[in-house]
Amino acid sequence: MDVSGIDQMLNVLRATATQAEGRTGDTQGPAAGGVDFAQVLQNSIAQVNQQQQQAEAMAASFAAGDNSANLHEVMISLQKANLSFQEMVQVRNKLVTAYHDVMNMQI
User: Fold this and answer.
1) d(Cα 93, Cα 86) in Å, to the nearest integer?
2) What angle, 0 to 180 degrees and rounded to 10, lies between the N-to-C axes of helices 37-63 and 4-21?
3) What are the pLDDT digits (tens) for 5-55?
4) Would you give the end-to-end CA distance of the chain in angstroms?
5) Long-range pairs of 66-73 with CB within 8 A, sequence gap ≥ 24
6) What's the CA gap between 99 and 102, in Å, rounded?
7) How far is the C-alpha of 73 from the C-alpha of 2, rounded, in Å?
8) Nearest to residue 77, comparing CAs of 7, 6, 13, 12?
């Protein structure tokens, strides 16, 4: 069983968490060495998109009868893409909820 893909995904998640933690206590913005939240979010969306495109390409290759395409790897890739997408949707839901909470605050 090839676990390099799982290790790669864990490294990406750890790197994203490290980037997100880099902003604590920084009030001068991303120009002062902090992390830009919009950039982190944009990078995460791009990674999810890339993973979905890669999974779709693998599935299309397998469906076309490519001998190098392994069914197990295709299914694992599709599940990783699905899990990444679900995670992105949950983050979006949390952001929308936080936005609504801020907008409903009394001044």
Assistant:
1) 11
2) 170
3) 666 666 777 777 777 776 544 444 555 567 788 888 889 999 999 999 999
4) 56
5) 73/2
6) 5
7) 9
8) 6
